[in-house]
Amino acid sequence: MGADNSAVVDPGAWVCPLPLRDSPNIVMGHGGGGAMSAELIEHLFLPAFGDAADAELGDSAVLDIGGVRVAFSTDSYVVKPMVFPGGNIGDLAVNGTVNDLAMAGAQPLAMSTAFILEEGTPLADIATVAATLGHAARSAGVRLVTGDTKVVDAGHGDGVFVNTAGIGIVPAGVDIRPTRAEVGDAVIVSGDIGVHGVAVMSCREGLEFGTEVRSDCAALNGLVADMIATGVDIHVLRDPTRGGVAATLNEIAQASNVGVAIVERNLPIPDAVRDACGLLGLDPLYVANEGKLVAFVAPTDVDLVLDAMRGHPLGRGATVIGECVSAHSGMVVARTALGGNRVVDLPAGEQLPRIC
């Protein structure tokens, strides 16, 4: 039987600012959540999917099913190493999926878990990951309702990879989307940034910084529930994972067609993270987080939201880092300590690959 060439994609027909045809093979940057990831989605996946693809393509989708608004999300976890200070790939998988649902305002209900295991991986390691995953699910209040297991040949995996999907219910009246940021909105971050990325990198490279940096991996659905309970119309929520706060702010600025102005001195960066980033030549704004959120709310609602956040253990460090402005639409600009301005670009790839 002859091959059907009707679906063959011609790389020569791709047109974009950073043409995929200039990089004919997948590189690590394509999985970094930055410009290269966006390019791959926009110029390869979306044309291939056609009308089957949803237009918004967020971290989670909100679907109306029989009059009930259901949030749905899926994610894969390939962090290296799979055990790191403050967690492992098991609780990372649960918390990451719970957080994607929570960023749509949903209360997570159930998850699937699929494991891809490398031949030769000690059963004790898998048992540790599974136990941690189960504990994280119980703590977040989600049920593990279906799953799958596959094994790949030795040398063709990296111990354990985990794929998840999750569903949750969005309460009536809640409308939280990356397209809802408005000029004048305050930009709030829930606490210290850059912690997860530095924790994983320090473990991966055997680096010591005088004090142990532990991942901030945590489920944020309880914090979001407290924020929603204030009755405030929260415009946007995002968890700044791959690409860090910088990538998240750029994505929101572009989705809402507003400018975002932040103040560097207001950024909550722990000394250990700042020192580690200085040593490694990294910008903390681009380093991944796994237990923090960014919120956009109207200026009149800031105090009420901050009080609710600071009353929750995962939001005690909540602070305003900037605002939405009419200037430089679609861009993020930071006010430096010296009084100048710098553009905070969307990263091309990722400073720290395989961080989640």
From TrEMBL:
Superkingdom in the source lineage: Bacteria
Alphabetized CDD domains for the sequence: HypE
Annotated ranges, domain PurM-like C-terminal: 182-328
InterPro entries: HypE, PurM-like_C_dom, PurM-like_C_sf, PurM-like_N, PurM-like_N_sf
Domain called PurM-like N-terminal: residue spans: 59-170
Family affiliation: Belongs to the HypE family.
Name of the protein in its database record: Hydrogenase expression/formation protein HypE
Organism of this sequence: Rhodococcus globerulus
